[in-house]
């Protein structure tokens, strides 16, 4: 599913070593174990608010948002996955064409003008291409596998978009540096959960970045070292403590405009 150069790059970074030495691994329970009753999800970990007030609104007040960047991300994710599914089954592109058109027309009706057919078509084709490459090369891919998260203090089940071998892979449409950093911490959570579950070291994750302006695809190979692992634990514990102890977070001094809670929270107004 990933281009050959990505695998070559990972192999080069490994330098022939299987499993780098890191102080923090998913199976080292005294380091990674849960410290508060509340168990965050990966969505909580990667939420864009600097103070995690969006998590507070969602978890404590039950505030649900279903528009803007959240809606766009969900639609892009669904369209990519649909294309991938057909490609991974080895379906001929001509056969897929009719299925693709019907699916995209339905998606257009539900996206309220947020996206156009041309964009969705390119995203579908990217998904198909990734799936077909995996099919041709007989690469085993797990699509949204259920991984136990409670072993590392997260919600009971967490689901990366893909997993090939023990490498978690996530889709994103963001180009914001701060949010991409959060996504790498989310990948770290998946890696630690896979380690805790399987006992195998997971030193890398991959972000597939779909840039909507021109619908091209970028690949970010993330080395999941101790620095990211410590950041994950710190962020997980901050969120878990906030919800468990009822510590309402302050409004941030500045909100990212792409935060789905931008208008609801009031901090950005």
Account of the protein in words:
A hairpin with a 4-residue loop joins strand 6 (204-211) and strand 7 (216-223). The strands form two sheets. The protein has a five-stranded mixed beta sheet with strand order 1-4-5-6-7, sandwiched between helices. Strands 2-3 form a two-stranded antiparallel sheet. By secondary structure, it is of the alpha+beta class. The protein has ten helices and seven strands. It is globular. The chain has a single domain (23-244), classed as Lambda Exonuclease, Chain A (Alpha-Beta Complex), CATH 3.90.320. The chain has helices spanning 4-14, 29-32, 42-45, 53-59, 68-88, 93-110, 117-136, 177-198, 226-245, 262-265, and strands spanning 142-143, 147-148, 157-158, 162-164, 167-172, 204-211, 216-223. It is 49% helix and 12% strand. The model has no long low-confidence stretch (mean pLDDT 90).
Order of helices and strands: HHHHHHHEEEEEHEEHH
Total number of β-strand segments?
Answer: 7
Mean of pLDDT: 90
Helix content: 40-55%
Distance between the termini: 42 Å
Overall morphology: globular
Strand neighbour order, sheet with most strands:
1-4-5-6-7
| Rounded Rg | 19 Å
Tally of distinct domains: 1
Give the CATH class. Alpha Beta
How large is the share of residues in beta strands? 5-15%
């Amino acid at each position: 599913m990933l281009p050959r150069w990505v695998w070559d790059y990972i192999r080069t970074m490994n330098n022939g070593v299987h499993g780098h030495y890191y102080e923090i691994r998913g199976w080292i329970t005294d380091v990674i174990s849960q410290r508060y009753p509340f168990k965050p999800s990966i969505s909580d970990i990667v939420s864009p608010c600097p103070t995690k007030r969006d998590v507070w609104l969602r978890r404590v007040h039950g505030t649900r948002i279903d528009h803007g960047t959240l809606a766009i991300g969900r639609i892009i994710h669904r369209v990519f996955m649909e294309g991938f599914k057909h490609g991974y089954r080895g379906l001929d592109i001509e056969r897929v064409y009719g299925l693709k058109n019907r699916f995209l027309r339905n998606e257009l009706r539900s996206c309220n003008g947020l996206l156009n057919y041309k964009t969705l078509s390119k995203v579908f084709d990217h998904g198909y291409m990734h799936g077909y490459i995996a099919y041709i090369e007989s690469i085993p891919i797990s699509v949204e596998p259920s991984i136990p998260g409670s072993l590392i203090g997260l919600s009971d089940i967490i689901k990366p978009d893909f997993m090939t071998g023990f490498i978690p892979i996530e889709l994103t449409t963001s180009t914001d540096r701060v949010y991409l950093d959060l996504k790498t911490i989310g990948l770290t959570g998946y890696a630690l959960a896979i380690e805790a579950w399987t006992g195998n070291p997971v030193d890398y994750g991959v972000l597939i970045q779909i840039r909507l302006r021109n619908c091209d695809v970028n690949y970010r190979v993330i080395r999941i070292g101790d620095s990211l692992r410590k950041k994950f634990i710190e962020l997980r514990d901050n969120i878990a403590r906030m919800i468990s102890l009822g510590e309402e977070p302050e409004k941030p001094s500045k909100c990212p405009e792409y935060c789905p809670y931008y208008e609801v929270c009031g901090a950005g107004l």
